[in-house]
Amino acid sequence: METSTNIFTLLWQYILSVFSFNPDSPLLFTQFQFWAFFALVFTFFALFKSKPLMRNTYLLFVSLLFYYKTSGLFVGLLIFVTLSDFFIAKGISRAKDKGRLLKSRLLLCLSIMIDLSILCYFKYAYFFADFVNNIIGTNIEVTNVMASFGNTLTGTNFFCVDNIILPVGISFYTFQIISYTCDVYKGLVKPVRNIFDFGFYVSFFPQLVAGPIVKASDFIPQLYRKYNLSRMQFGIAVFWIINGLLKKIILSDYLAVNFIDRVFDNPHLFTGFENLAALFLYSLQVYADFSGYTDIAIGLSLLMGFHLPANFNSPYKAPNCSNFWKRWHISLSRWLQTYLYIPLGGNRNTTFGTYFWIVFMTTAALVLCGNGWIALGVAVIASMVAFTALRYPEKRKKIYANLNSMITMLLGGLWHGASLNFIIWGGLNGVGMVVFKFWRDMSTLVRALVSTLTLELLTIIDILIGGPLCNILIVFMLFITVGAWIRYIYSLTGATKKFGWLEHGWSVLITFVFITFTRLFFRSGSNLDPAVANDTAWSIASRMVNSIGGQWNTNILPILSAYHNVFLLFVAGMIIHWLPSRLKRRYRIMFAKLPLAVICLCVILAVFFVYQFVTAELQPFIYFQF
How far is residue 308's CA from residue 206's CA, in Å, rounded to a whole number? Predict the structure, then answer.
């Protein structure tokens, strides 16, 4: 009797652990517990798969449980925004049907205000408090209002009120909900009929916490389709899941734990080559981490009969910065284009929003940075833009397009994190896009001359001022200049088409190097408190720049030997990444067509292979913190 009681107690404790939240061990795709969870979910899913409403309702409660296991009581926040936008969107639709356009616009504004207010409170409270304190000279301190309310409600001091904790995935599901309300207002999609279907759209667990951001017009029609999973689709789904796990655990986690994190934590303890290598390895790590999550999400969704959009398309094959953002985090890029860039005026005009964001972002950068040289630089650039717009009216449309692109990238950077380092990262990407547009319109001779003059100017600055940053910029500009002159010589000889592959490869390399160096600020931390984040970012970035642009020890063989596994993995990862898309599609289809027994064997071998690379402590996905 006592033995059976002990067994029952242990079983009950296990059940409680399954349905409880452990902040030290959130539910991740890379955990065995998640796959046990999914196996159980998929087993019961078979009972409801043929009945859309029951299937969607079941997956809604499963998704809420998953989010609770990932973020605890913040599941209440998810439920709140789901309910508010569900009813507001219905109100928008009814108002438009009755011709009450003003009411529909006010409801749209209300929905966006609620969603963005919640996002801004949790993600940008410290940022705005620091901004106001620097301008007015106040000493505003941020308080966790929800924790304070919880203490009042319970009559205890259990909840910490000193820090705001960022809910996992809030940036993703907020943008997804806003897209739904806007699409309902535009008439692109009808409001979802019941709260269970809409709640499922908002909280679908494979893509809930790190995307992709799914537009309502793409996903909502799938809510009412009958379940269908062909033999080929099953094979493709399994392929994406295995592919994502291999990316995450082998390329991302192994490289991070065994090299990248060590260098970024203490860059001054490592040589210039090691700092440079860590930067390039991080470019592969962040891609493998984020795209690995997306691959798993796409595979899991496909098993349940739902199709998620592709979020990556070999981004390091991009020959320029604009093309990179058409390949990287595609769902965010499209969201920013649809709901930010085009409303700002797109490539045709400017609006009040354009000038508002120019003033706000410039002021924020100057206040948070407090650098007079930056203020002078901004003033000079603004004067040049204004002079060009007034002196050459035919250039206005191009100026408008570049201004709107720059604002979109700056706000895209701010979306990633509430600190100056992310604004700088977004701004650098915006500069890369704008410079490319001007570069594209130049003749080959002008490109060669401009790059040469820029190189000469950097050399003069290096002589007058010097410094590691100048050395890095000179080397980078030297590569661009060499490429520009080679392109010009080819154009004179008529061999441009013959050597087009060489020019394309050179452009891909230059773009990869540029994107990699912008990640100096991206990797430097996404702390919610900008005062801490900015200090950390500048400290790490300056130390790495000093190391990379300073004196080098040319004997790198001992480093290559000591970290040979890391560098071999990096080379292998980049080779696979740069493989032709047709070849990747071919072996993906070949895998899907294998007999089920062979697919099962491949899964077992993949799990065994992955297990060899598992680190002592599982690493969370990088984009969970956004």
Answer: 10
Q: How far apart are CA 218 and CA 225, in angstroms?
A: 13
Ramachandran angles phi, psi of 428, nearest 5°: -60, -40
Q: Where are the alpha helices (DSSP H) in 304-340?
A: 321-327, 330-336
Helix axis angle for 101-136 and 75-97, nearest 10°, is 140
Query: Taking the model in full, what pTM does it have?
Result: 0.88
Neighbours of 2 (CB within 10 A): 6
Token pair for 207: 């893509």
* 356-380 residue pLDDT tens: 777 777 666 666 555 555 555 665 6
Residues with a catalytic annotation lie at: 416
Q: Over the stretch 518-554, which tens digit does the pLDDT of each residue have?
A: 988 887 655 445 555 556 667 777 888 888 887 777 7
DSSP SS3 for 333: helix
Q: How far, in Å, CA of 352 to CA of 357, rounded?
A: 9
In this structure, the chain runs to a length of 626
Element (H, E) at 421: helix 420-441
Q: Which of 353, 520, 342, 323 is nearest to 421 (CA)?
A: 520
Task: Enter the tokens of residue 55.
Answer: 């299937």
Cβ(53)–Cβ(197) below 8 Å: yes
From 27, 565, 29, select the one nearest 301 (Cα to Cα). Answer: 29
**Helix and strand numbers, DSSP H then E, in the chain:** 28, 0
**C-alpha–C-alpha distance, residues 623 and 293, integer Å:** 9
Report d(CA 36, CA 221) in Å as an integer. 30
